[in-house]
Write a structure and sequence with these properties.
Layout (H helix, E strand, L loop, with lengths): L14 E2 L5 E2 L35 E7 L9 E11 L2 E4 L14 E8 L9 E2 L5 E3 L1 E9 L2 E5 L13 E2 L1 E4 L4 E9 L3 H8 L5 E5 L10 E5 L2 E5 L3 E19 L3 E7 L5 E3 L10 E19 L4 E5 L3 E5 L2
Antiparallel strand pairs: 1-2, 3-13, 3-14, 4-13, 5-12, 6-7, 6-8, 6-10, 9-20, 10-19, 11-17, 14-22, 15-22, 16-21, 17-18, 17-20
Length: about 325
């Protein structure tokens, strides 16, 4: 199933009738039925040798736009479609709802400093240096400066190796409608072969034989396929807070610490009468964020029982 784009460089949607007359189908619009000037040739208008050059397996055919009348002596085939246009691809990873665990569950406390007049944060934090959300008891200590390192947001769905699945929308997919006309009557077959822009037909998706360079792939329906979206990325803003409590189990008074990865003073600590902290409470909440990705271009094709029409230029 291939996109019917290989038409030898001729006008998209051009349909050949008698004497090479052309009917047009506007891109993205409804196909127009054949006018009176786009018809099959009159039977008996071809010479006796007109069909001698047709390759084996191919049949002469009238190729008309819309649901045109095939005319006397011709058998009307089913209405078929060609030249799909429109349709679009999207990305499955877009538009996901925020989830709580898109913000990290733990926070790293790397160093602390008991000196109220410096902000070096050079002393090792004794005991655990990584804390989960909620309340954690500490060994009692006086802390004036604190370094809390937030972890990056952790997406739980969407991107895999920078890509996510593509999704398709066929609501804007349109096609040109065509009819093919054949005949078992010798005089009508010869008339088809004698046309300057004569066409031939064969079942399936075929390469056009020599001399018939204008290809039209016909089907009974149309569809698009979408490849994976690329450049998939995730971004989120998390609201992180750390509070230090003077009592265990996060009781007593509390003071807060800025969480930005830098060495920051404990807000509320008193240098002249320092507090001893016995517990830490950590909370991290998702605020805003989501996925983004670049959608692939749709690959259009006709579907169903395929037939190939090839015409002389």
């Amino acid at each position: 199933m291939r996109d019917d784009a290989n038409n030898g460089g001729r006008d998209a949607g051009a349909i050949r009738g008698a004497d090479g007359a052309v009917g047009s189908v506007p891109d993205g619009g409804e196909p127009k039925d054949a006018g009176p000037d786009v018809t099959t040739p009159v039977c008996g208008s071809g010479n006796a040798n007109a069909c001698d050059g047709i390759p084996s397996g191919w049949e002469p055919v009238g190729y008309l736009p819309g649901s045109a009348n095939c005319g006397t002596g011709y058998d009307a085939g089913p209405t078929m479609v060609t030249d799909p246009t429109g349709g679009s691809c999207g990305c499955d990873c877009r538009g996901k709802s925020p989830q709580e665990n898109q913000c990290p569950g733990n926070i790293r406390m790397s160093r602390w400093d008991g000196d109220p007049y410096t902000a070096a944060c050079t002393s090792d934090f004794t005991g655990n240096d990584e804390f989960s959300q909620g309340c954690s008891d500490l060994q009692p200590r006086t802390i004036h400066h604190f370094r809390a390192i937030p972890q990056p947001a952790n997406p739980v769905f969407g991107c895999s190796n920078g890509s996510c699945s593509g999704s398709k929308d066929t609501s804007t997919l349109t096609t040109a409608t065509v009819r093919i006309c054949t005949s078992a009557v010798s005089e009508c077959r010869l008339a088809l072969c004698a046309q300057p822009h004569a066409c031939i037909v064969r079942d399936g998706d075929r390469s056009c034989p020599s001399g018939y360079t204008e290809k039209h792939l016909l089907g009974t329906g149309a569809d698009i396929t979408c490849g994976n979206c690329t450049g998939c990325s995730y971004s989120a803003t998390c609201s992180t807070s750390v509070k230090l409590y003077t009592g265990n189990n996060c009781t007593g008074t509390n003071d807060s610490v800025d969480v930005d990865g830098g060495c920051n003073p404990v807000i509320g600590q008193d240098a002249s009468s320092p507090k001893t902290y016995q517990a830490l409470y950590y909370e991290n909440k998702f605020q805003t964020g989501g996925y983004d990705a670049s959608a692939a271009a749709p690959v259009r094709s006709v579907t169903g029982a395929l037939r190939t029409v090839c015409c002389k230029p």
